[in-house]
């Protein structure tokens, strides 16, 4: 990663000290990095005496509940459950901090409130092409594992923490470590020298990685693992271009009692096959199909998501959606759509 700009840190500190009430916002369907960076920021702001709320468009997966302690639960507002108080928390704040997304539409139902908001906004993000014009201060860095890692380096540069990880609130340290572990798929992808420096400093400061791993990976339901077996054995298809895809329709999700976050990480698995260069998971939702794309080095998941799946993200890990009634008539048309569009896309690599 490039060096953190010390002028940006001074601006950040001035903006924080000028603000009484701060709103923290992250992307829809919050994952470990979204919730980890949000709760880490929250605990840091509480430690410096700020009144602070976290606003989510929809609930976090239950395996991330451990990031929300008893003390912070009252300050977490979910728009889907309490739209009025969630919207009010954004409106009534005098500073908005946006974490782990590059454009307002990634917050789904929160987008109109962010677009209308006139108060200063800060962006801390690791995605490609952020909408910088909507923010007063931008920390954007793609050569890091996660937004949590970027926030770690930012906090380390503040006067209060002064490059000593043991001065971070311990709940912030757990949250930052969790966000980094989930976005790297437990140190498998997007690990940079700076990522290992962060991990090392947090471990030295006493962060309990075993507890985090236990919470993240050893507390799922039996049906989730059985679903994984079914997906890899019966549902995965591989095209001649080396594109693996899995379509998870609503009926299968019902049969296996799928909850938010249950399929996290499954899209990576087909990449373990030698001839597979790109993996796509489609999950049927109400009026849309959610798309997750992962690719091997040299193949752009980001370009594929942008050009064919109404999305984007990182070079090798992206997402998007297909609209039912527009891109496809129903979920049964999804395989044909994927085969046709990925064949068009893969021609740029296959000549
Ligand atoms: P996931 O497959 O884990 O849902 O998402 C992978 C990456 O793609 C994440 O970094 C996420 O921010 C990005 N992403 C997921 N869905 C969308 C989308 O609809 N639009 C854009 N621009 N990015 C997305
Ligand atoms: Mn992230």
Describe the structure.
This protein has a six-stranded parallel β-sheet. The protein has a six-stranded mixed β-sheet with strand order 7-8-9-10-12-11. The protein contains 13 helices and twelve strands. The chain is globular. The protein has two domains: 6-217, Alpha-Beta Complex (inorganic pyrophosphatase (n-terminal core)); 222-350, Diaminopimelate Epimerase, Chain A, domain 1 (Roll). The chain is an alpha/beta fold and 351 residues long. Helix 2 (32-47) runs parallel beside helix 6, helix 2 (32-47) runs antiparallel to helix 7 and helix 7 (170-183) packs antiparallel against helix 8 (193-204). Bound molecules: guanosine-5'-monophosphate (5GP) and manganese (II) ion. Guanosine-5'-monophosphate binds next to strand 11 and strand 12.
């Amino acid at each position: 990663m490039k060096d953190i700009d010390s002028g940006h840190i001074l601006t950040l500190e001035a903006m924080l000290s000028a603000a009484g009430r701060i709103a923290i916002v992250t992307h829809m369907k919050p994952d470990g990095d979204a919730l980890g960076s949000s709760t880490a920021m929250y605990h840091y702001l509480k430690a410096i005496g700020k009144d602070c709320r976290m606003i989510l468009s929809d609930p976090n997966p239950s395996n991330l509940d451990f990031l929300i302690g008893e003390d912070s639960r009252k300050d977490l507002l979910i728009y889907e459950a309490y739209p009025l108080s969630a919207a009010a928390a954004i409106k009534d704040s005098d500073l908005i901090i946006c974490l782990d997304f590059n454009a307002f539409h990634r917050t789904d139902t929160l987008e109109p409130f962010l677009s209308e908001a006139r108060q200063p906004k800060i962006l801390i993000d690791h995605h490609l092409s952020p909408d910088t014009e909507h923010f007063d201060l931008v920390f954007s860095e793609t050569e890091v594992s996660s937004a949590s890692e970027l926030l770690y380096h930012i906090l380390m540069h503040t006067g209060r923490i002064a490059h000593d990880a043991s001065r971070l609130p311990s709940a912030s340290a757990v949250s930052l470590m969790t966000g980094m572990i989930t976005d790297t798929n437990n140190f498998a992808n997007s690990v940079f020298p700076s990522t290992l420096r962060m991990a090392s400093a947090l471990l030295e400061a006493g962060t309990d990685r075993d507890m985090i791993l236990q919470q993240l990976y050893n507390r799922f339901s039996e049906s989730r693992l059985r679903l994984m077996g079914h997906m890899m054995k019966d549902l995965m298809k591989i095209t001649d271009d080396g594109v693996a895809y899995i379509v998870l329709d609503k009926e299968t999700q019902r049969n296996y009692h799928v909850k938010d976050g249950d399929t996290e990480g499954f899209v990576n698995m087909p990449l373990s096959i030698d001839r597979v260069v790109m993996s796509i998971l489609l999950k049927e939702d109400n009026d849309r199909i959610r798309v997750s794309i992962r690719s091997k080095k040299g193949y752009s998941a980001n370009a594929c998501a942008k050009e064919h799946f109404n999305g984007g993200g990182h070079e090798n890990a992206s997402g998007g959606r297909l609209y039912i009634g527009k891109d496809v008539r129903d979920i049964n048309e999804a395989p044909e759509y994927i085969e046709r569009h990925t064949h068009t896309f893969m021609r740029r690599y296959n000549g």
